[in-house]
């Protein structure tokens, strides 16, 4: 229950932070965090990757069709990562797309400039 509460808080924070940036993008931070919600325990505690997590990664990748969508998804992911802080394992986050057999055009990293994502 505590994990669900943290995830809900994270979704709300991401929506509030990214709302001004989302005007031109079809993808929202709510959609990003909703699709990645089942990845929370893996990204913070490790263990196995739930099937629902990889399904969410695949859905998110399919949703991010345009450059603006990919840039917005990148910003939302960065916002979620900042909200999780030290609880997030950056290495697991960076490897998640590959582990789910999803190819994305940019690395998952806190240091990436989302404006350069194509």
Automatic annotation (TrEMBL):
SUPFAM superfamilies: Bifunctional inhibitor/lipid-transfer protein/seed storage 2S albumin. Residues 1-25 form the signal peptide. The keyword Transport applies. The keyword Ribosomal protein does not apply. Plant non-specific lipid-transfer proteins transfer phospholipids as well as galactolipids across membranes. May play a role in wax or cutin deposition in the cell walls of expanding epidermal cells and certain secretory tissues. Belongs to the plant LTP family. It comes from the Eukaryota. It comes from Camelina sativa (False flax). This is Non-specific lipid-transfer protein.
